[in-house]
């Protein structure tokens, strides 16, 4: 074999080797990326399959904005709790639920009667949630829901207790973060009085959370009065939106 031919063969082998190495590396990298990337799970179908296996396919499943909701009607309260427990446990075993399923909402009626349950946003957080996960949990619970008070007072409405309990569960999971409870009012009446009312209402929420074993040291109470409206229109719907308590993560609490 001539030197020129040998050199050509060697060059071809080197090129082939580089090509194979590149292909293997690319394949390995793609496999790693695929392993790390979350699966695009159809959570409605997933939950429905779980319920069908337990002969509960009459329960309807919905999934919107990270909240998985069960609807239907049962005759026994235990059956209602069992349906949600089955779905929750199955989803929690799936690592890919993190960041996708943010809360569980049990809207199954009991003999046609609706129960005042609030969504469970604490179970999805795990034992060491990030500040972003905690903020998302608070936002999920307060999306379309408002803590109610007596008219012109800081007395908590009984119908808001389930929501407050759900918020307390999140606060206890998020025990390494200071959270601001910001009170807001609508613009009706005197601005000074509204400022004071917003502070009293935020404090009422903090006091209730403490009764549910949330450390007071994790809660910062602030009143904003009428200065930060969510809706600037002058109608009853806008005013209802503006009367609210917001939960905002401030910073991590050092032990």
UniProtKB/TrEMBL annotation:
<dbReference type="InterPro" id="IPR006664">
    <property type="entry name" value="OMP_bac"/>
</dbReference>
<dbReference type="Pfam" id="PF00691">
    <property type="entry name" value="OmpA"/>
</dbReference>
<feature type="domain" description="OmpA-like">
    <location>
        <begin position="136"/>
        <end position="253"/>
    </location>
</feature>
<dbReference type="InterPro" id="IPR036737">
    <property type="entry name" value="OmpA-like_sf"/>
</dbReference>
<dbReference type="InterPro" id="IPR050330">
    <property type="entry name" value="Bact_OuterMem_StrucFunc"/>
</dbReference>
<keyword id="KW-0472">Membrane</keyword>
<keyword id="KW-0998">Cell outer membrane</keyword>
<protein>
    <recommendedName>
        <fullName>OmpA-like domain-containing protein</fullName>
    </recommendedName>
</protein>
<dbReference type="InterPro" id="IPR006665">
    <property type="entry name" value="OmpA-like"/>
</dbReference>
């Amino acid at each position: 074999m001539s030197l020129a031919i040998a050199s050509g063969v060697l060059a071809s082998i080197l090129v082939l080797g580089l090509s194979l190495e590149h292909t293997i590396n690319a394949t390995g990298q793609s496999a790693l990326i695929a392993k790390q990337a979350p699966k695009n799970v159809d959570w409605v179908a997933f939950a429905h399959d779980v319920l069908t296996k337990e002969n509960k396919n009459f329960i309807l499943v919905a999934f919107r904005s990270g909240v998985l909701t069960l609807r239907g009607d049962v005759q026994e309260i235990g059956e209602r709790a069992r349906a949600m427990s089955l779905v929750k446990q199955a989803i929690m075993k799936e690592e890919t639920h993190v960041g996708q399923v943010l809360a569980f909402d049990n809207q199954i009626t009991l003999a046609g009667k609706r129960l005042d349950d609030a969504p469970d946003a604490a179970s999805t957080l795990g034992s060491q949630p990030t500040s972003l996960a905690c903020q998302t949990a608070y936002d999920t619970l307060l999306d379309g829901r408002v803590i109610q008070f007596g008219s012109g007072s800081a007395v908590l409405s009984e119908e808001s207790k389930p929501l407050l309990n759900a918020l307390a569960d999140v606060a206890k999971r998020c025990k390494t973060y200071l959270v601001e409870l910001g009170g807001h009012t609508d613009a009706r009446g005197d601005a000074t009085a509204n400022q004071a009312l917003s502070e009293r209402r935020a404090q009422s929420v903090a006091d209730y959370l403490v009764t549910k074993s949330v450390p007071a040291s994790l809660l910062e109470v602030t009143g904003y009065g009428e200065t930060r409206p969510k809706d600037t229109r002058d109608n009853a719907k806008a005013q209802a939106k503006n009367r609210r308590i917001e939960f905002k993560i401030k910073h991590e609490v050092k032990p």
